[in-house]
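Bug #2210: token dump truncated for Hydroxyacylglutathione hydrolase?
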Amino acid sequence: MSAQSAPTPVAIIGGGFSGATVAFHLLRLRPDLERVVIIEPRANLGRGLAYGAEDPSWRINVPAARMSISPEEPNDFNDWLTASGRLDEDPTARLPDGRNFPARAVFGQYMGEQLRAFGDKIAHVVATAEQVEETPQGYAIACSDGRTIFAKIVVLAVCHPPPSPPAMLADAFAGHSHFIENPWAPGALEGIGAEARVLIVGSGLTMADIVASLDRFGHRGPITAVSRRGLRSRGHPPAAVEPYGDFAARPARTVRELVRRVRKAVAEGAAQGKSWHGALDQVRLQGTAIWRALPLPERARLLRLIRPFWDVHRFRIAPQIEATLDRKIADGSLTLKTASLRRAERRGETMQVMLRSRGGKSKGETETLAFDAVILATGPAHGGVFTDNLLLQAMQAAGLARPDPLRLGIDVDLNGRVIGAGDQPASDLFVAGPLARGTFGELMGLPDVTNYAVRIATHVAERLAEQQACQPDRRKTPAAIPASP
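Reproduced locally. Full output below:
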């Protein structure tokens, strides 16, 4: 392995939105830093899975005026859209009420521009981090290209694990060209014929994206979306709604009490002519206080019983995509079914799936349907993050990290520091991004991820100051990153 004469102050593993935002704010807080290293195999920083997709039909799900790399400048991205001319290139991104919902790739372009402003202060190592080991000076990060990066402080900003297909489907349809386990893979949907019968397993945001893509490709065949509860992601209110209600002053200690209070707030808001969106927005804003007040068994109960309903109300779809779903449901080309998968069988190129109804008058009844394409839209497999991610698997084996008690991601303390086998948080190992949500609760939407990234950058800056105070005579300039072997 290659070596460095001195460790770099900070290395960030993962260069999607979370990792890039930590770097952005750290360099703002500590402009004296000559370099922050980001280890990311993708060619572009700041995009990740969500904002690296080039499909123009996949739009941001939050109005542009609420998306920014800087919480103190909430209109930054919206202003950039106008100044850069991106809105002129996509007239359908602007709604009559002035809200903008451009393609997600456009937000990725915005992120790239923000990072390029730092020049070579951000060193992008185009590789995958494979192992992290403790050293007397911090950590050694072994990369897939043979390099070893030595760092005093490490921030884990690893991405979501890929979807995990139901074993029934994986066994029956393995090798079928139109059994699509990862709909985000480039070109994954392009080979589906215009008249193809399509089954989408899942009915949330990913399903909506898939339908929007198929519609853009001119698909006219029947689409069936199936999920255990048959819940579809909701849309945005027709006009801006201020958050209302208070769920943090005396937070509920049980899921039953929390649901009762949310329903009461929604009812009181409705009596005043307010949309339910405002109450749910307040729950999101106060999410960490709500989550932390619930005992562990109640958190597990919330995930099991309430999370599916929360997700479809909290994570709303862009109005353009909502209109596509409404149109296709109205003309009969899209059907949502509340059902579970009972059997799967391949007959030539046809994929047959038996569904068992879970709701309505047909509850308990089964039907077998034939499909030409089956697409997985169940979302990231959070429960398997330590088995699917080889880096985290190695870190767990070394005692450096462990899953949180609910297996939503990585166990961290309230400062975002990783808790390992010794039950104590590491001073110089942090987690940025949604994989810290086992501790913080609501940590999936971009505004929440941004605010959390600022907190992590602040903690890292404070830790750097502590290190420098303890070693005032040490050189503060990081050594050069060794070239690829």
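Output looks complete on our side. The first strand starts at residue 8 and ends at 13. Marking as cannot-reproduce; reopen if the truncation happens again.
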